[in-house]
Amino acid sequence: MNQGKSRRQFLAAGLLSTLAVACNSKKTPFTPEEAVTESGEKVKLLSVDGEIIEVDKAFLKPVPHMPSVSNDEARKGIEGKKFAMVIDLSRCKNLKKCQSACNHVHHVNPDQNWIKVYQMQDAEKTAPYFQPTTCMHCDEPPCVKVCPVDATFKRQDGIVLIDSDRCIGCRFCMAACPYSTRVFNWDEPPMTEELSHSDYNAETSIPQKRGTVGKCDFCPDMTRMGMLPHCVSACPNGVFFFGDIIEDSVTNGSETFRFSDLVKDKAGYRLMEDLGTKPSVYYLPPVNRNFKFEEGLDKEVSSEKKS
Amino acid sequence: MEKIQKFSSEKIIHDLLPKKFGRRGMIWTGSLIIICCIGIVAYIQQLRKGLVVTNMGDYVSWGIYISNFVFFVAISLVGSLITAIFRLANVPWRTPLTRISEIIAVSAITFAALIIIIDMGRPERMFNLFIHGRIQSPIMWDVIVISTYFCTSLLLLYITLLPDIRIMISEREKLGKPFAKLYRWLGSYWKGTEEQEKLRDKSITIICIVIIPVAFCIHTVTSWLFATTYRPGWDSTNFGAYFVSGAFLVGAGGVVVAMWVFRKVYQLEHYITERHFDKMGKILVMLALLYLYFNVNEYLVPAFKMKKDEEEHLVGLFSGEFAHLFWFAIIVGMIIPILIVVFPKGRKPNAMFVAGVMVVVGAWFKRYLIVTPTLLHPFLPKFDAPLKYSHYFPSWQEWAITAGSLAGVLLIITFFARVFPIISIYKTITDHETEQPY
Question: Does the model's pTM come out above 0.95?
Answer without folding.
Answer: no
